[in-house]
Write the structure tokens for this entry.
Amino acid sequence: MHTNLFYIVLSAYFLTIGNQTVFGQETKKPTTSFPAKNQTIKPEIPPANNNLKVEKIDTIKVDSIKKVKSVLEGKVKYKAKKYAKFDQKKKLITLENEAELNYLDYNLKAGIIVFDYQKNEVYAGRLKDSAGNYIQIPKFTQGSNIIEPDSIRFNYKTKKALIWNSRTSQNELNIKAKIAKKENDSIYFMKGARITSSKDIDDPEFYFLVNKMKFVPGKKVVLGTTNLWIENVPTPIALPFAFFPITQDSQSGIIPPSYGQSNERGYALQNGGYYFALSDKYDLAVLGDYYTNGSYAARFESNYANKYKFNGRVNIRFENLITSERGYPDYAKSKIYNIQWSHSKDPKSNPNSRFSASVNLGSSQYFQQSINLANIGSNLNNTLSSSISYSKTINTIPQINFSLTATHSQNSQTNQINMTLPSLQASVDRVYPLVGKNGIKKGFIKNINFQYNLRGENQITTSDEFFFKKEMFSGAKVGFQHSIPLNTNFKLFKYFSASTSLNYNEVWTLNTIRKEFSTSTNSVINTDVNGFDSFRTYSVSNSLTTNIYGTFNFGSTKKIQSIRHVMRPSISHSYTPSFEKYYDTYAMDASGRTAQYTRFETGIYGAPGINYSNNIGFNINNTFEAKVRDKDSTKTEPKKIMLLNNLNLTTSYDVSSDSLRWSPMRLSGGIMLFKQKMNINFASTLDPYALNKDNKTRINSFNIDEGGSLFRMTSANMTINYSVSSSNDDKNKKNIQGAINGGRDDDLFGTNTEINDNRNNQFANNDSEEDGFTGFYNAKIPWDMTFAYSITYSNNFDEKKIVSNSLMISANTDLTPRWKIGVSTGYDFVRKGVTFTQFRLNRDLLSWNMSFNWSPFGQSYWGFFIGIKASVLSDIKWDKRNQSDRILR
């Protein structure tokens, strides 16, 4: 116990005795009385002495009895359901049946509480019910510390106690000891103790049996000889001593490594290192691997947070991989790394300023070659991307917004990296110069508005070989783009919405080219020119749109009462003149043939057009919905169902072109079925023009004029996504790490498994009850399924070929409340093979987690893990895996 029971029992004593005066021994009666009020007593004066100064003495004597200081520091409360018995002869105070004492932050509850104020002891114990079972077990509470023994004996003079079968909880640990000796408020010595993280402390599924231990609540547990018991069966796992820190704050400490083996790299120690609890706001974990053939890896993981301001996570990983042994033909060596950083800012901390980061960069082959990650979805991803942005709003009139962004895009197949370091965007809010004093923007004139936009970029294109080296900056391109759109909109003939805009665009660049023919090499030479240059363009655009509604009524008695069709046709027009003045000519060969080019053709923001454009665009958007009679007869209003949420037709006509004026028509649509759980999207491209006899080139002749159909389908695709579960709740835990690595956030391509983070699986925080039988005809088996199908058809040059056709399925189910199985698989109908497949098995063993993953195809992999959930005991685990060695490329 963590309390000084002396005050509790002494206060109970005072409450039972009453207001009597008690002395430790008899006192003699005074022989003289105190002087009466206002009575003066003359003191005895010594003989006269001229050298002696006589001081005046107070004529009233001071009371010689000192006031006794109260030992109580607070209010005492006590109660008992049956009785409170006081025995003056034996000097005992007994509280029975739901007895309780409260003092300061101490609380003692028990079936019986006995106070012997002659021996300075307190006893608290249990009671028996009519069936002979013990009830009302003592419970002592001080703050957040709770001890629940069978009985307790406490001496409030020496402040020592003996506790039988004490039960206490410290963070994630539950401790029960046969006998505990309390030395003082902060130290306990225990014999025959059981330590477990199981919720059932009296019948745990596992525990550590300790002969002797020292327990300092809230700080540490020091153990002697310790033996692990599982289901009351001793195991050969034993330790001569052990130490468990149980503080509320994070503690620095060693992370023990796990044993591993690889056919190509030998034996290994993995994920060993040190955890630094630097502060409450940030931490650092340093982990490493070492293989006997010389391969090694290092990882630095840190989480940080400042409440109501920001939070983030940093993960830096490096691996030096060696395959085989030096001198063998299959010897290979590679260095790979990966940097991940995520940062988010609380928008409430500063609404006018925002900073965010999502970084995932490094070696292109990291997720394919890493020996410490079983990257399922990430291994199939071909792109790594990053973005760091800062934006700020200046609340002036008009409002000013600007942002700085650094982006990164990396293709793991081609090893090409595209970066912007940085990208600047700034804009001034719209200004309505002709609006009236009343502020109403109505009509062609009053709706005229303009704004200013600025964009600047420093673009870098490089490869893995030169990443973060000085060579990556050699081909950097810098440019700025200024745009001022002048817009207005108005109503036309009441039912039409019209808009028109004039767009001015100006581009500044520091990189141009010059082309010239070299007679010495007999070829065209491109020369990069560094220096400021600029060009200006403008364009005009107009649009006209309206809404057309149509309703087909079938009667209120019909199941389908009506169908509503909404059609939104629109016509747009765009005009861009020719900017031929920015074009020059160069000799193509020695014969004198020339060609046109513009020095801005390699610029960031494109080049001015040499041909003028005069396009008319046509677009029709359609939606269909129905009103159906609800199955619930008590509802009077029909239910609305979306039949087709969009059906779009888009094409354009180029007035300025001398041939092939009609662009291919794009037909696209989407529909949601089965209570919005199935999403079907389809699209097709229809070309009105025919091909030549060799089916290699489009000709200026309609397909119908060449004996074909009105349109020639050149491409088509359809995707179906369907997610369904046994309940309306969302699916289980998302694959967050898979999304951070650049893959999917679901388990359609399996789950990502980090070898150094196996304990954080689906059951880490599962608080469900034990498996229970609900009856053969009332069994609840939760399940969820994700289904994806995609097919693409290509017929650009009459090849009539299905280029992709694949089906992916992921399913999970709970056989019992604690058994969960899952599978992710698929089939490619074009390549006629099974796609990536993963089988998952998870078992929640209350205080333990067990999982098994198996990928039988491709880079085959299997892994088995069993370990204790509690973080303080997380190093007690068994982790076995086998995977094919990664090939260094």
